[in-house]
Design goal:
The complex is a heterodimer of chains A (476) and B (154). Chain A is mainly α. Chain A has helices at residues 10-35, 45-63, 68-81, 87-92, 97-115, 117-129, 133-150, 153-170, 179-195, 205-217, 223-248, 257-270, 275-298, 300-313, 319-325, 329-346, 349-358, 365-379, 385-400, 407-418, 429-435, 442-467. Chain A has one domain. In chain A, helix 5 runs antiparallel to helix 16 and helix 8 crosses helix 12. By secondary structure, chain B is of the alpha/beta class. Chain B has six helices and five strands; from the N terminus they run E-H-E-H-H-E-H-E-H-H-E. Chain B has a five-stranded parallel β-sheet with strand order 3-2-1-4-5, sandwiched between helices. Chain B is globular. The chains are: A mainly alpha (476), B alpha/beta (154). Chains A and B meet through helix 5, helix 8, helix 15, helix 16 and helix 21 of A and helix 2, helix 3, helix 4 and helix 6 of B.
Chain lengths: 476, 154
């Protein structure tokens, strides 16, 4: 039976149905009006038009009125149409090497998921840890974080979710009542989120940030260089997150015998390691080593693409698998974001807008880094973290030279905090996945998430002030 | 014999509603149908987020969807079994039904199928403004059926 039930008043229905179109009409009109204003002093006409497109994409990326990738397509079409850059220039930015790097990385992640290697790694790590309630919780934290070093964080959360659900069920934890049940799922989400900032592989925002940095300044950050700067922060955050969780959710479980039994059963059921798992592991290991030590001469994207070819040479994945595991909308989202970043920085709009919005607050280089890090960590709770990078980084890069901050520092200061969404499910899929278990409510994330967020910001500043100078990176 | 239908769902359940249904069925010597509707649309927002924000393909979302829905289905069945045990100890005859789909549509289907004389539902706590703007499934169901309804506030 197909029944349509809607008993709201007709005027309300009409308003609700036409609201979307009214919003789009309003946005189009506002963009057109801004683009045709007389530019204020210090801003070129092309810069003003770039700001109009930037404002439009900001609203669409934040509100999700259109899918992220479709907003990027709109950006690509509008920039040449409004005379900000030529068509050939705009479309050429779609071919940025970062797009192909992340595609290669996602195909490698698809191979790890499909072969079962990632699941086996998770089970082995959980077996090592799961002796007591505390160590099992720590095991989930560390496993999720470690896997997120090498795979997208949301794929890790999705892959480990059924395992953690089985553990919670096996331990007969009561949904919404058991502290330990809540802690298990928060550990899964936070572990994946924190691990996701450690390398270029955990979150799509990191290569996007590098691509915007490269396109606008011609400078770059290497895979190993990023790890050296960020992994110590990740390790401290993991300890802080575990301590926060243990403090707020007191353990109410005596033993984990049933969970250990379950994990062992699953491990035994997997049997011996297969040829596919072994080969995928080998290729992944080699790729990571090449990324770490040979990325400058060989190029991150070239290494990624050669590894993908190797997967097909050894028949470890099929094209159908790749199509099912990889979201091709990423090319569109990235292309548009890189294009917009380049347009607003090169037209001088980023410097003008950045100075207008936060210029007076960013008195010193440290204050500027602090403001951008703060904005990124706040807004990432409600907005996709890739969108945060696409919005804030061009502004930061535009202002960096005037404030004496190196573009690399600004890239870290925006990309890393943009990945740390601990409180709400809107910003990042791992939190949404954890919530869907039904073992916890949004409010279970809020207070401890806020505390961890403050700790994360403090850790970031302390490391930037005291650790980064030791490795040759100076904020001031 | 009077037919009482108690409808629970992934997001609509409360102890108060269950107690009310058992008490009414016992007092009126009625047959109690315990239904659980698995709202399959509920986890969809997560899967959309996975493919949009999270940049992952269909397969990862599908695998996750299967495990989430299996878990909700299992919890629904357990809940119904729990109520049946109490009902049987009170001498109330009952049967169990688990359905998957949109709450309002599945609820109306069940009302017709079991020829219910009384339907007992849980109303979630929401503001009047939210009910006015977004509508209320419970009010819609009441408007579409002739039988008696007992709505228990969560």
């Amino acid at each position: 039976m197909n029944v349509e039930i809607d008993r709201r008043p007709l005027w309300l229905l009409m308003l609700v149905r036409s609201f979307r179109y009214l919003v789009f009409a309003g946005l189009a009109l506002t963009t057109y009006t801004i683009a045709n204003l007389t530019p204020p002093e210090g801003l070129s006409p092309a810069g003003l038009r770039a700001i109009a497109v930037f404002g439009l994409s900001l609203v669409l990326w934040v509100t999700h009125l259109l899918p992220l990738a479709i907003t990027s397509l709109l950006v690509i079409a509008l920039l040449p149409l409004m005379g900000v850059m030529s068509s050939s220039e705009a479309y050429a930015l779609f071919g940025n090497s970062a797009v192909f790097f992340i595609l290669g990385a996602l195909i490698l992640a698809a191979a790890m998921l499909k072969s079962g290697l990632s699941g086996r790694m998770a089970l082995i790590m959980l077996t090592l840890f799961g002796k007591t309630p505390r160590s099992l919780l720590l095991g989930i934290f560390i496993t999720a974080a470690f896997l997120s070093f090498w795979m997208p964080e949301h794929a890790v959360a999705a892959m480990m979710f059924p395992m953690v659900l089985d553990i919670a069920r096996g331990l007969e934890l009561r949904p919404l009542k058991s502290n330990y049940g809540k802690a298990l799922f928060i550990a899964l989400a936070w572990g994946a989120i924190i691990g996701g900032v450690a390398t270029f592989l955990g979150g799509a925002r990191n290569p996007l940030a590098i691509a915007i940095l490269e396109e606008t300044t011609g400078r770059s950050i290497g895979f190993f260089e990023w790890m050296v700067a960020i992994v110590p922060i990740v390790l401290i955050l993991l300890v802080a997150a575990y301590a926060t969780l243990s403090f707020f959710l007191k353990n109410d479980l005596d033993n984990t015998d049933k969970a250990i039994e379950l994990i062992l059963e699953k491990k035994i059921a997997l049997g011996r390691i297969t040829y596919e798992e072994l080969m995928v592991g080998l290729i992944m290991g080699m790729t990571v080593l090449f990324w770490m030590f040979l990325s400058k001469p060989l190029g991150l994207a070239n290494i990624a693409l050669l590894s993908v070819v190797a997967l097909f040479v050894f028949k470890l994945v099929s094209w159908k698998d790749v199509e099912e595991y990889v979201n091709w909308g990423i090319i569109l989202m990235y292309g548009g974001a890189i294009c917009l970043g380049s347009a607003i920085t090169k037209s001088g709009a980023a410097l003008w807008a950045g100075d207008l919005i936060i210029g007076s607050m960013a008195g010193s280089s440290v204050a500027m880094v602090g403001i951008f890090a703060l904005l990124a960590i706040i807004f990432t709770e409600g907005v996709s973290n890739a969108a945060i990078v696409a919005i804030l980084l061009p502004l930061g890069l535009g202002m960096s030279s005037d404030h004496g901050v190196s573009p690399e520092i600004i890239t870290y200061a925006i990309a890393v905090p943009a990945g740390l969404a601990f409180m709400l499910p809107m910003g990042t899929p791992p939190t949404a996945i954890a919530l869907s278990s039904g073992y916890l409510r949004v409010r279970d994330f809020l207070i401890q998430g806020l505390v961890l967020k403050c700790i994360a910001l403090l850790v970031f500043f302390l490391m930037a002030t005291y650790y980064w100078p030791l490795i040759g990176m100076n904020v001031g | 014999m009077k037919n009482i239908l108690l409808v629970l769902s992934t997001t609509r359940q409360s102890t108060k509603t269950e107690e009310e249904a058992l008490t009414r069925a016992k007092a009126e010597g009625a047959q109690l149908t315990l239904a659980f509707i698995l709202d399959s649309s509920m986890p969809e927002s997560i899967f959309e987020k996975m493919t949009d924000v999270g940049f992952t393909g269909e397969r990862t979302s599908q695998e996750l969807q299967i495990s989430i829905l299996d878990e909700y289905r299992r919890r629904g069945s357990l809940k119904l079994e729990e109520i049946r045990e109490v009902a049987e100890s009170m001498g109330v005859a009952c049967k169990l039904v688990v359905r998957e789909g949109a709450f309002a549509i599945e609820c109306l289907n069940l009302v017709n199928e079991v020829a219910a004389d009384l339907v007992i539902l849980t109303k979630k706590k929401r503001s009047s403004l939210s009910r006015f703007i977004f509508g209320s499934a419970i009010e819609d169901i009441k408007g579409m059926s002739e039988c008696e309804f007992l709505i228990v506030e969560e």
